[in-house]
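User: Here's a chain of 178 residues. Predict its fold as tokens.
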Amino acid sequence: MRVFVAIPATPEMQAAVERWQRGQRGLPPVRWIAGRNLHITLVPPWEESEIERVASVLAGVEAAPFEVRFSRAESGPDRGAPRLIWATGETPAALLRLRDTVTTALGIEPERRPYRLHMTLARYRPTPPGQVVARVPPRPVDWRMPVGSFALYASHLLPSGAEYEILREVKLGARKGG
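Assistant: Prediction complete.
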């Protein structure tokens, strides 16, 4: 099964993003990400057969709640040939600590690329070779989200786009065994 670890968007964040998406006009063709699929990736997807073992390892991760703030919606990750529209902001140290704690617990090597706080809002639709499509210039947003949990997700690839299913959610700040 294809799985990944991420922070689910709160219902309030989902609503804010969906309002923003409805307000966007004159964009190139994009496939908007539904609110239920919004998340902040901590560990990118991998193939896993031992779901219960992974869920058990994640249940033992301890971290304190924190907040993230998104300040821009922009094309990314490559500004010259972007594939998506994402919300970005300054990466809080607590987010980096959580990512490092999770990857260490799972025995996964962290990505070599510098981690950047982001949440994918839309994916550009494929265009014919040689066709140039205007990209979205950066747009300011002011979205704050308390982070009170992270989750093990399953990724289901469908013709209409990926759908994500939370397999196990881990609350932050909960004392283990007490």
